[in-house]
Amino acid sequence: MKKRLTAWLLAMAMLCTAVPAAFATSGPEDVVTGGVNIQSLLEDTSDKGYLITTRDEIPAGTEILDAEVRSDFKLSESAQEIEPVERMEVYSEELDGATVSDTKAEYTTDSFSTYGEQLADLVIQINDKVYSVGSSLKKMYDTYRSDVRKGANSQCLLDSSSDYMENFAVTLQLSGAQLTSEMASAIISDLAWTTYRCLDFDEPQMFYSNGYCGMSGSYTSSMVSFYFRPLYGAYFEDSQALRISLNEQLHDVADQVVSEAAYYPRAYDKMKYFHDWLCENNDYNYAAVESSDYPITVSGTPWSCVGGILSNSVEGVEGPVCEGYSRAFQLLCQKAGITATVITSDSGVHMWNNLRYGQYWSGVDVTWDDGNDGTYNHNYFLQQVNNMSGHEVDDATFVSWLEYPNLSVIADSTVLPFYDVSDSFWGRDYIQQVYDRDYMSGLTCVNFGISSTLTREQFAQILYSIAGKPAVEYTDRFTDVPDGQWYTSAVLWADENGIANGVSDTRFGVGNSITREQLALMLYQYCGATETPEGYIDSFDDAAKVSDWARTAMNWAVKEGVMSGDNKNRLNPTGKATRSESAVMICGAIIEDQQAAA
Length: 598
Known about the structure:
With 598 residues, this protein is α+β, with helices and mostly antiparallel strands. 33% of the residues lie in helices and 12% in strands.
């Protein structure tokens, strides 16, 4: 976790006035502290009198008190209101040539998920007491994120006034803290800003507010209550009706792009399609970068996903800068089920994407790949972008307590993209083999469905694909196989070639989970139904449960190593076959023979 907790980082947190600065600037050099001593760090921040950090920074044995969430608590008459505060952060970068630097990545983790998930680890030290505040901040984050994802029904989208946002407030009891007015105001501002920034970086649907919020709160000597209001930037503030209309158009176009990307079943190809679509439909907005008041008085759209998604189709929507490209790419990925977030450079003026690819995280910078003359490249597509030249990461421009992911280069689409197939999963090598040959894809582009069962028509489709999808003329052979369905040709091909019969004379059994013995029979028939002696299944405890029509196929499967028993010496012939088991059996029945013949 972070070690750089200097007075400057703690004091700044990008505090702006009611007329916020248009561009972030980098601060003075940080001092790297080693062997962290919580008291010495607190003394370094004596101008504020408190320290926000993470649990792992607290010396072992330190008592951590719960800052109880009191959502039903009403502050007494002695409570005081802090002056409302507004903060804004804007990221934009003119394009330059990029070269790899010697800068080493810091503050990285191999277990990154989102920024918001890290909130739960935060603590605050006031004088000699340490309070756990993370659960409160995570609760606030979850409340806002749930609201933002309501789309046109989001209260943040409709009305971010203080009257309503007070309903999102959390109250922390800091027993014995003896808060001063300055300390309480600073704590409220820092905690609310940290929570807002996590939401801002994780949630591109909050297009109307990116990087801009107001915060308010109340306090006593031992309690703080606070909330933030996502504020509306220029163009988005004009009317509620406009925000609703933009939200509808944003999702319509984004959903259409994701629908078009369905042609590519692999995550790698989908992300490449999103990258290329953004390059082809946008030009970098140099005018926005060159004007200091553009995001305040002209338009905020270049800094939002609206700019990246709608600039080519909706009048009045300005084209994107780096933030608009990044948030648009993030939105498209999230709609396709791909976990993606954004990250900023140490200069505080550039933004790009980090995203999860299988068991790895990688980087994408659409902005620097867009040539703006109708050309584009893939120099920053699924690369180790973080800490390359122009992409050096320093949390001084975000918050100093959060980590970002270690990145890997994803060479091509053969790298497994599945979140549910860990490096140690027993079926990983088999899944890799069927994936390499396009014999099986995932339930989604990032989820193989290792424990999900297959239906009869799904397995017929797999064998049909392996066979090269030969032409099939439609007949009304089965009442549950109408013309024009994704499985129609596969089922009719399987029936015509004696690979799979129906569950009755008129029904194939579409939607029925395939059993292990049914799957073995289909593989046996596909592989030529070679003569196989009996006896191979007799040593299994449940051999008697194998159906008569499946005995030859099951003997063949055991003999050829296509199927084996479980740790209780059972074949489980009538059990449902999982997708992982199917991958293993396909490897044993088909791929090994292909490799032997090669």
